Amino acid sequence: MTPADLSLTVLHAVRRAVDDGALRVEVPPRVTVERARPGGSGEYASNIALTLARPAGRSALDVAGILQERLRDAPGLRDVEITGPGFLNFSLRRDAGAELVRAIREAGGAYGSGTALAGTTVRFAGPSDLTESRASVVTETVVRLLRMQGADAGFGGAERMHVRPGTYDVDALGVDAARWALLRPAPQDRPLDGPPLLVQHARNSLFRVRYAHSRVRRLLVNGGQLGLLPSYEGGADVTFGAAASHPRTTELLGVLGDHPVVLLAAARHRAPDRVARHLEAIADALLAFQHTVLPLGDEKPSAAHRSRLALAEAAGTVLAGGLSVLGISAPDRI
Residues 275-297: pLDDT tens digits? Predict the structure, then answer.
């Protein structure tokens, strides 16, 4: 991980803290990362917490703690320490990307499930009481999210989702477009306009997510024709090669590593729109990364290509799993 990669990782943590309401500041355009100075620890350090403290109305140590929590499991970082008045110090690891890919491969579509809400019981008003189709779709999805985090969730209680009304003709749009139109906006916002979701264009967020998944399936087929199979073995030099320090790789690893946190936050806040937005981020990172996966021109297939194919496959797995949470299909071809 280079200083530029680390800067993107820290900036991503700031965005997450702002998105989930832990910090109330404007996200800076960039984060400065330098070699750790005497008295620090690890290889690199940043003063971002000191920079954000005043606009956030918090102490630098408080801000550093908020960011430290969101950086602990970041790909490529072995440890994050706070020193002095609020400096963040980073110790790097060389095999974090390979570990993340292996974790996704082992978990499959269940990647991001957990037990954080075990012991929690949630009961929503029964389906027969949910006259709005949007309320029904949102509530059913929230129940699924809660169960994925270990909660005892279901129907038969009094809790209701506060959802802006909306209905769609499923026969006209199809199940996938109808559900995306109802789930993609925040519950208090208006549903998306349905017909544009049927257009195969980059401006169509549903198409972009499903297309990214189909691109993974095509990369795997094309890789197989070249004798390339996804590889999860070996250390960082073998598993991710030169691509390990590529900004596109860092971004994709970052959003994949965020997936469990996003699913948990979506369950806690009853907000399936967070899952949809995160799938868009994964899709965008994957579509930017895809051009590095297979050999180009006279380039010979190598361990680096196998590792990039493994990372692309992991991204496809997460996209398919996330779409499944929303009750939307992930076709192999579009």
Answer: 999 999 999 999 999 998 999 88
